[in-house]
Specification:
By secondary structure, this protein is an alpha+beta fold. It is about 45% helix and about 25% strand. The protein contains five helices and five strands, in the order E-H-E-H-E-H-H-E-E-H.
């Protein structure tokens, strides 16, 4: 069970922003690089978003070649990882702060991970890791409702009602 989450961000200056913005493979690659740098399990790093550094229309992002992308990420600290969640979170915060001072390792790790995920035509020219870190306690809550499952149920129900109404009208029309 997750007890704490540590959130931070970084900015990458890359040769092809369109290859990263909105790409699930890019999220996996960057998450892998962060997990290696912070020495945590890959499944405990979630890249929340990779977005163009300035707000652009979708068409502009597709046309844009080189530029900056913002990466927002969360590191999960679960109670099973050790007996001292406080020490684990303090260690991760310290590593993130150190990463903001020396980005050479994480820049290389991101570049390698992008190649491993077969993301072509992207070079990482610069990386700026934020020293701003937020640590949050995680409270347990019921799992979220799967929106696609409830949508499918609603669609099925609406379809059944539509057929019933159509059948009633066709029966009335025949009389």
């Amino acid at each position: 069970m997750v007890k704490k989450q540590v959130k931070s961000s970084m900015t990458l200056k890359v040769s092809n922003t369109a290859a990263l913005v909105g790409s699930e493979d890019a999220k996996i690659a960057v998450g892998r690089a962060i997990s290696k740098k912070l020495q945590v399990d890959e499944e405990n790093v979630i890249v929340n978003s990779i977005t163009a550094a300035r707000r652009l229309a979708a068409a502009e992002v597709r046309r844009l070649a080189a530029g900056d992308v913002n990466v927002d990420y969360t590191v999960l600290i679960d109670e099973d990882s050790s007996t001292d969640v406080e020490a684990d979170s303090a260690s991760i915060v310290s590593k993130i702060e150190a990463m903001s001072q020396d980005t050479s390792d994480i820049k290389t790790l991101v570049a390698v991970a992008l190649v491993e995920e077969d993301i072509q035509g992207v070079t990482v020219d610069e990386l700026t890791a934020s020293a701003t870190v937020t640590v949050e306690e995680v409270t347990t809550s019921p799992p979220p409702v799967n929106p696609s499952a409830s949508s499918a149920h609603s669609f099925g129900l609406a379809t059944a009602v539509l057929f019933a109404v159509a059948a009633a009208f066709s029966h009335v029309a025949r009389q």
